[in-house]
Every structure is written in structure tokens, then in C-alpha cells.
């Protein structure tokens, strides 16, 4: 399928790194409303530049628009592409409000067009390996998932000097204003929904703990930099999901069944091995406990974890930040569904549901009932 990119910033370079080798996609060119960014990006990657959005949409060969603009431009750009009869794959979130997201879904459905949104990490080798384990019933009945999306202590890092491979600065102001929940929660919600089905209820807490971050860039931050949610799935599984950009990096997902625990160490890594063990304790934790108990004269039964071989569907290059995150896999999946009737793994319904859960975590209106304690200590 012929595709064109709109938005040539930081993440667009990561898509360019992961596009080669994907079946059935041909990139025709790119457009960005910032002429300097458009020129730098297209020169670096040696691809044609469209001078305007009109020019891009006037190119009849373009079947799908890949929307890599900033979140607050997603609705406008995706809607324009859909109205021009193009399938759309959008970076996350699908839109900034439910009304806008539903508008896009309706615009796609009425025209019979494909619409999907990142993240696509439920398509990763490791999440697919976990899905197979669950389907085979090897963990027994799943009760609980614990999902972390702590993206490091960003305010302490040198983010003003981060650059993508074609020279785009990291969009710090936008990231802080939009907030880490809207930016990152999908990386855990999407695999969770793929594994456990729809979410029925969300109980959320959120807080803005470092309001001054990005002030020097003119950022006006009112979005939370911490959110914690309890997700109850239709099937009875419950999940605790934490999002921050103020805590040490941890993007692990633990799925706890009656007969064992599966751990994905980092949901951004598509090739990381899945660890299955009786208790979910890491090897280091088990070893240190064994040593402690040996010292005290008790020799414990060492619980050996099982490391599954990862199905290397395709070699994913390391992108910015050193992750093996296959950004473009979702585009190829959407194209395969449209062109070849491949099983539906990405689409408008999933993107809309992930957006609704994300907004429930972000919005204070859904925050859990807060109870002020009557007792105290001095
Ligand atoms: N930066 C990351 O590490 C990263 C990683 C994963 C996903 N994302 C997601 O990717 C998207 C883009 O983020 P980014 O970091 O690349 O931002 P960015 O600011 O670096 O790039 C976005 C580009 O889109 C262009 N743009 C905005 N509105 C436009 C419009 N209406 N028409 C044409 N061009 C327009 C901007 O000029 C800019 O060059 C966001 O949804 C973000 O959540 C970012």
C-alpha cells in the first residue's frame, strides 16, 4: 500500500528506521507545516517532500496517511485525510477528547476507510508469546495485572538537547503540556485490552507533582505527571496501571495467574524474552533470598523461571533511546487487513477504547473518591 507521512518530527525518524523490510508498504513522501523541518527530514531520508497538505491529498497514489503530528493536531489532520478518502494510521492518542475521537471513527466508518492508532506494541513478539501462554492456560486463571509506565525522571535529564537522527528536537513542551498519561498510558492499555478484552470500569487517581517543568520553554503544564488507575475488565481480570515521568524508568508488565506469573520486563521492547515463573521473582531476587536463607541455615527450593524463545518475526532495529520498538508494525498490519483481509488486530474500535480508558486516567472528573483521614500521628 502506498503511504505518505504528515508530521516530520522526532518520532517520524523512528518510523523511518522501522519501515524498511515491512511487507507491502511504499512510502511516497512526507509533509510538515514547518518548512525547515520538512526540508531537513526529507533531505536526510532522501524522500520526496509535498509542499502542502493539499498537494499530498491531491496525489491519487496515496492510499494511507500516517499522521505523526503532535497530539493536538491529530483530529484535524486525520479528519482531513479521511474526508479526502484516505485510510489513516495515527500516532497516539487517536484524539484529545472522546468527542473528537468518535468523530474520526464515524468519519472512517461512513466512508468504509481503515483507521487505527499507535501504539501497536500488542503486536510485539513478546506480547504475542504471552497471549499464546494465556490461551494455552499455562498460568491458570488470570486474576491481576500490574503495569508500570514510569518513563524516568525526565525533569532531571538533558531533554533540551535530545535530537532525533535528522535533527528534530524532542518536543518537550508538547510532551509536558499533553501529559505522560495521554502520551504513554496506551503502551500498557493496548496490550492489556488485547490480552483481556474490554475494560468495564476505571478508578483513577492523578496528580501534578512538578508543575514547573518545561517553564523555561514556555510550557504551561496543567496535565498530571502521575496517574494511577485500577482497570476492571469484562472478563474479571483487574489491573493496576501507573504512569509517571517523575519516577525511575520501569515499563514492566506482570500478569498474575493462579498457577504462575508472566513478566514482560519492558513493553517497549518487541524482542525481549517473556519470563514465566511460579512467583514472578527475578533471578537476582531469588538468588539473594537463597543466600540469605543459606546464611541462616535454611536451603530453600529455588524457583526456576522459564525464559521463552522469542519468535523473531523480523529483526527490529534499535531506535532513538536504544529500544527495539517496531513503530511501523501497526501500519503494515492495518494495510494487510485492508488489502489482504488479515485478521483484525488494529482498528478504530481498539483505538477508541484505548482513548476512552486513557482519558479516564487523565481526567480528574473520574478520580476515586478521596477520603480525608480522621486520625493522625505527631
Ligand atoms: N518523541 C517521541 O519519543 C515519541 C515516541 C512515540 C510516539 N510519539 C508521538 O508522536 C507524535 C509526534 O511527536 P513528536 O515527538 O514527533 O513531535 P514533534 O513536535 O517532534 O513532531 C511533530 C511534527 O508535526 C508537525 N505538525 C504539527 N501539526 C501539523 C499539521 N497540522 N500539519 C502538518 N504538520 C504538523 C510539526 O511541525 C512537527 O514537526 C505524538 O503523537 C507523540 O505522542 C512521540
Per the principal axes of the C-alpha atoms, what is the gross shape? globular
Bound molecules: nicotinamide-adenine-dinucleotide
Structural class label: alpha/beta
**Low-confidence residue ranges:** 296-304
Main sheet: which strands, in order across?
7-8-9-6-10-11-12-13
Cα(first) to Cα(last) distance is 67 Å
Write down the overall mean pLDDT: 90
* CATH architecture label name of the largest domain: 2-Layer Sandwich
Q: Report the β-strand fraction as a percent range.
A: 15-25%
Task: State the order of secondary-structure elements, H for helix, E for strand.
Answer: EHEHHEHEHEHEHHHEEEEEEHEHH
- CATH homologous superfamily identity of the largest domain: Dihydrodipicolinate Reductase, domain 2
Number of helices: 12
Helix content: 25-40%
Q: Count of DSSP E strands?
A: 13
Structural notes for this entry:
The radius of gyration is 22 Å and the shape is globular. The model is unreliable at 296-304 (pLDDT under 50). The strands form two sheets. The protein has an eight-stranded mixed beta sheet with strand order 7-8-9-6-10-11-12-13. It has helices spanning 10-18, 35-45, 53-58, 74-83, 98-111, 125-135, 172-178, 180-184, 186-196, 283-295, 329-340, 348-362, and strands at residues 2-6, 26-31, 64-67, 87-90, 115-117, 142-150, 199-207, 226-233, 238-244, 253-257, 260-264, 275-277, 306-307. It folds into two domains: 2-117, 3-Layer(aba) Sandwich (Rossmann fold); 122-338 and 351-366, Dihydrodipicolinate Reductase, domain 2. With 378 residues, the chain is α/β, with parallel strands linked by helices. It starts with a strand and ends in a 16-residue tail after the last helix. The longest helix has 15 residues, at 348-362. Nicotinamide-adenine-dinucleotide is lined by residues 6-12, 32-34, 37, 68-71, 73, 76-77, 91-92, 168, 170-171, 174, 183.
Amino acid at each position: 500500500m502506498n503511504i505518505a507521512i504528515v508530521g516530520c518530527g522526532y518520532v517520524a525518524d523512528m518510523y523511518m528506521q522501522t519501515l524498511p523490510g515491512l511487507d507491502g508498504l511504499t512510502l511516497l513522501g512526507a509533509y510538515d507545516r514547518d518548512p525547515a523541518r520538512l526540508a531537513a527530514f526529507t533531505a536526510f531520508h532522501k524522500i520526496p517532500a509535498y509542499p502542502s497538505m493539499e498537494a499530498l491529498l491531491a496525489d491519487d497514489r496515496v492510499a494511507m496517511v500516517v499522521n505523526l503530528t503532535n497530539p493536538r493536531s491529530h483530529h484535524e489532520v486525520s479528519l482531513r485525510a479521511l474526508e479526502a478518502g484516505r485510510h489513516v494510521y495515527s500516532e497516539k492518542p487517536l484524539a484529545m477528547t472522546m468527542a473528537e475521537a468518535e468523530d474520526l471513527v464515524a468519519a472512517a466508518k461512513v466512508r468504509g476507510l481503515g483507521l487505527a492508532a499507535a501504539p501497536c506494541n500488542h503486536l510485539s513478539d513478546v506480547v504475542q508469546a504471552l497471549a499464546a501462554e494465556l490461551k494455552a492456560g499455562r498460568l491458570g486463571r488470570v486474576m491481576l495485572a500490574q503495569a508500570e509506565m514510569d518513563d524516568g525522571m525526565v525533569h532531571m535529564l538533558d531533554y533540551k538537547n535530545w535530537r532525533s537522527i535528522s535533527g528534530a528536537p524532542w518536543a518537550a513542551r508538547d510532551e509536558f503540556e499533553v501529559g505522560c498519561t495521554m502520551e504513554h498510558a496506551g503502551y500498557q492499555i493496548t496490550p492489556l485490552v488485547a490480552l483481556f478484552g474490554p475494560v468495564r470500569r476505571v478508578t483513577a487517581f492523578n496528580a501534578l507533582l512538578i508543575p514547573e517543568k518545561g517553564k523555561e520553554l514556555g510550557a504551561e503544564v496543567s496535565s498530571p505527571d502521575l496517574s494511577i488507575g485500577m482497570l476492571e475488565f469484562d472478563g474479571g481480570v483487574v489491573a493496576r496501571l501507573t504512569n509517571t515521568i517523575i519516577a525511575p524508568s520501569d515499563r514492566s508488565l506482570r500478569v498474575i495467574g493462579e498457577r504462575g506469573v508472566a513478566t514482560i520486563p519492558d513493553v517497549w521492547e518487541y524482542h525481549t524474552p517473556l519470563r514465566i515463573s511460579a512467583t514472578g521473582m527475578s533471578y537476582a531476587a531469588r538468588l539473594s533470598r537463597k543466600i540469605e536463607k543459606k546464611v541462616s541455615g535454611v536451603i530453600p527450593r529455588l524457583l526456576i523461571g522459564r525464559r521463552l524463545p522469542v519468535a523473531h518475526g523480523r529483526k527490529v532495529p534499535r531506535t532513538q533511546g536504544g529500544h527495539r520498538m517496531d513503530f511501523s508494525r501497526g501500519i503494515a498490519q492495518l494495510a494487510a487487513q485492508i488489502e489482504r483481509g488479515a485478521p483484525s488486530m488494529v482498528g478504530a474500535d481498539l483505538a477508541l477504547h484505548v482513548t476512552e480508558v486513557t482519558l479516564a486516567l487523565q481526567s480528574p472528573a473520574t478520580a476515586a473518591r478521596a477520603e480525608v483521614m480522621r486520625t493522625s500521628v505527631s
